[in-house]
Design a protein that fits this description.
The chain is mostly helical and 125 residues long. It has helices at 3-15, 21-27, 36-50, 54-67, 72-84, 88-101. It is built from six helices and no strands. The chain is globular, with a radius of gyration of 14 Å.
Amino acid sequence: MSPAVRAALLLALAACGRGDAAATRRARPGAAAIPAPVRAQLDSGNAAYRLRDYPAALRHYREAARLDPDQAPAWYGVQMAAGALGDRAAADSAGARLRALAPATPPAVHHPGAAPAPPPPGAAT
């Protein structure tokens, strides 16, 4: 597995609450551990997201990003929850911030229970 793919997977796992600080530091050398208040918001956002309570998830992820704007998992969560709510502008903005922090992170994928993604411009409907 390439180092870029490994880093992307470790960051995605950390964003989903399934990673650990050591794995995140290996994925992003020099990255600091996630502070406890940020981790609490990420955990709450992850729990709400799993319950498909996307508005609550978005509030928690945004709070995590407010507490520490340099935490890629917070921006990944904002991107996922905003996308699930159909707020493409917020999802795209969070995705841009995420890519600036962690360029190897793959784009967020559409959650099966989320609002359907709009068709691409010019697509037949």
